[in-house]
């Protein structure tokens, strides 16, 4: 039953994919609505099965689904969920994709490679998704892969709020590569700190090394920021490089998307790393990670959706 306290101009229903049902439920709770009914399953051979258990006819449907690991499963689930809604005569379909998988495949690094982020944008639109709400996209140009509007929210202010009281006053914000300078600058502005930039060279798809650094870290505590922590390799390597350059062994690590695959937590479990902050764009499995702090983006996403449902804009003001 719809119990919206918003003055939304259209009837909407919010559904959860299986990637992050807890986040979807928290968003729905904040919007004061129940989650829509659907059964998401797998056929015996692994194919995705989705069935809506309520009508979406002439409704605005919002599907909350991060394309988090297993990325391909969650992506196909989002696609077939949207297709089910389209075929059931939903008026409009918005995909709320807090973590947008394949975002790193936004350009070709060599010959005979795909631009998979573009492929994902194409297929999302093919199944009728008319609007995407996402968070801290790996690169802003991904928005341009879509004809449909894309709203990219940022978790930087809420991560800064969570970090602020823990950080020493001399902390510097470190960008682990050139691609994160703008993100690091946002953190630095939020925290009133200086920015240090590492220049990284990619050796192959999974290995990089730091060639030089802009800014002074000697004797300073560091907050290393990134859009995501996947294997933790970038962060661990950054920690070691900063220590080798004389930084104080007091490191804080923050990223919007905590993929934390392949023993990432173990890789970051060193005495110098004091705390790791991520958001709940990706549901945490049983991570054995004592230093991990997960900050919820549910309120942020819910406010943006509420603004959008009221007047068509996710922006404040
Ligand atoms: C790379 O460009 C991204 O911004 C992240 O730095 C990277 O994907 C993190 O991956 P990992 O944790 O495996 O080093």
How would you classify the helix and strand content by structural class?
alpha/beta
Tally of helical segments? 8
Low-confidence segments: 1-7
Instruction: Tell me how many strands there are.
Output: 14
Sequence of secondary-structure elements: EHEEEHEHEEHEHEEEHEHEEH
Helix content: 25-40%
Distance between the termini: 31 Å
Strand percent estimate: 25-35%
Mean pLDDT: 93
- Over all CA atoms, what is the radius of gyration? 20 Å
In spatial order, strands of the major sheet run 10-9-8-11-12-13-14
From the spread of the alpha carbons, the general shape counts as globular
Small molecules bound in the structure, each named once: ribose-5-phosphate
Brief characterization of the structure:
With 317 residues, this protein is of the alpha/beta class.
Topology:
Blueprint: E1 12-16, H1 21-30, E2 38-42, E3 48-52, E4 60-64, H2 71-87, E5 92-97, H3 116-126, E6 131-135, E7 150-153, H4 156-164, E8 172-175, H5 181-191, E9 194-202, E10 208-214, E11 222-229, H6 233-244, E12 251-258, H7 264-268, E13 273-279, E14 292-295, H8 298-311
Parallel strand pairs: 1-4, 4-5, 5-6, 6-7, 8-9, 8-11, 11-12, 12-13, 13-14
Antiparallel strand pairs: 2-3, 9-10
The protein binds ribose-5-phosphate.
Features:
8 helices; single chain; alpha/beta; seven-stranded mixed sheet; globular; 317 residues; five-stranded parallel sheet; 26% strand
